[in-house]
Structures
1.
Amino acid sequence: MVGPPGMRQAETMDQGNRGELAAFLRSRRARVQPADVGLEAGPRRRTPGLRRQEVAQLAGMSVDYYIRLEQGRGPRPSRQMLTAVSRALALSDDERAYLHFLAGEPPGLPAAPARVVRPSVLRLLERLEDTPALVCDAKYDVLAWNPMAAALLGDFSALPPPERNVVWRFFSDPRARERLDAADAARFARESVADLRAAAARYTGDPGLRRLLDRLLVASSEFRTLWSSHDVTARRSARKRLHHPALGWLDLDCDALHDPDDDHWIVLYTAQPGTSSHEALQLLKVIGTQDLTTRAGPAGPRRP
């Protein structure tokens, strides 16, 4: 859409989004009662919810500017204006994000990936007694794991927190790389570096991610080569061939389930029933439990 003379193209909005933004604001304003935002209702109130003047007052903007927003007119509102309107209308997090997207101003992400795993996710890991499962953040830090994951991949509690990173271990420790067959190792190298590049764009201010990238760039020439390709991709589920010291090679499905609220990944390892790999996982449950009992105490989901 072309705006009026003198208006920058970046300031305009798609006409469909402009109409939807206007309708959305009107519907949210009608939903909020004066008492919800600390205002007196007063006598003879005919408007359902708040008046336009009240929203403008709460948001710290002119009444004329807000009226134009609800009429689908005027330039694209800034991120600051959208934040002020969201606060005035008591929007939920999802509604606030929706308003920002309609205006062409996607809401900002947190400065760093979340480090705390929700209790409900920890309960999920605890209930997966037959399935290796772990939780990683956007930069592949392992935040929580169950006993089966420790038995399959190694006991993360034996590592200092800076070493509990899947990508760091892969590129810095040859033993970690040898757990994958050659084809899977090459694919993981490419995809994990491309995924880290995408994470670096989302979390530009995270010093932890910056430190990880600096360490990898110094420690691994392969990482430097892959990083210089500027490939970007998102984490995917995959079929993997993993080697276990006691059980040999296992053919496993590795499913990565994304939790968008925290930008966490719940990674599950399973095998097709009736296969030797499935039988090996059943045996791993016994071997792993015995091993963890002697070294790390009672079984249960772990986190740093």
2.
Amino acid sequence: MKMIAPFFAALLAASSLPAFAQTPLKLGLLLDMSGPYADIGGEGSVTAARMAVEDFGGKVLGRPIEIVFADHQNKADLAGSLARQWFDDQGVETILDVAGSAAALAVNQIAKQRKKILIANGPAARRLTNEDCTPYTVHYTYDNYALARGTGEATVKAGYDSWFFITADYVFGKDLEAITSAFVAKDGGKVVGSVRAPLNTADFSSYLLQAQTSQAKVIGLASSGADTINAIKQAAEFGVGKSGQKLVALLVYITDVNSLGLEAAQGLLLTEAFYWDMNNETRAWSRRYFDKMKKMPNMVQAGVYSATLHYLKAVDATGTVESSAVMKMMKDTPIHDFFAHDGRIREDGRMVHDMYLFEVKKPSESKEPWDDYKLVATIPAEEAFQPLSQSTCPLAKK
């Protein structure tokens, strides 16, 4: 009887808890788990979110925190359907990321209808904080404006003032090309041509041939993930660079650079929100991540960790999961962590923070695996992102 008593005491204590307190708080990630963007988010983003939950303590408001995820296969309709099921039938309270702009825009509308919070880390389209902004959406890590402002403007100012784009043929790529083109024109350059490549293109030879024929000083890759890696590898085979043309990848992650190798990637200029070897804080967290994933995190994965922790702190501070109250707390509270210093979420949902322009090192400059970048410039938060005065978001106060 003495051994049985503690069991019944624990059972009685558990049964006396409110049902709400025993229900897991489910946070979801809709990602590409097996396609061209799997290395950008994928299992790495799931791991980062789980690290944030662990560091927070595993519970909030007496509820265990559960991370759920699904592969949307880069299909916007599937992403929207999964989000609807999660919100309506499976008790998911918040979606922490949706890989890909088209998929994110689809989920954004579902989240708005359900009055649920969406925190976007992987997507880049500006529409999330412009015409498609909502009171419940945060665009956290980066966007196309920041990429074009960093890499595009720096390249033109260095004298590479004529551009030909090889662009991913969907929302993200078209938006990135349009913004970069505007920066090129503003700084006195010109765009001499462009071509659209379908998602998950394996053979870029015809597109590269058109780019070389254009005699543009820059071949701009407005793409991401496996598409960018394939294009860079094939550009090297075509002799791009040796002929005087400069290859510029407007969205590159450290995981891409590692896949390419420094021999192929050396000299690339790129804009990132995060690099693992910036300081003691970034190194400490990244090495913990490395122990789990056997690779260093990219900016999306670091952003997922930061966003998850920021959301959980807001829930804890407000004592509720009600979206409006949590979002107000998230916007009122500055973000100070290894990912962002003095970050803040504006009324249009844009999280503003410093961005960084890097150059990929030569093999001779690298001292260890993943020692890939050297810092060229820090782009202050107020310059890195689209000014609020230019926003088309109805929530923006101008």
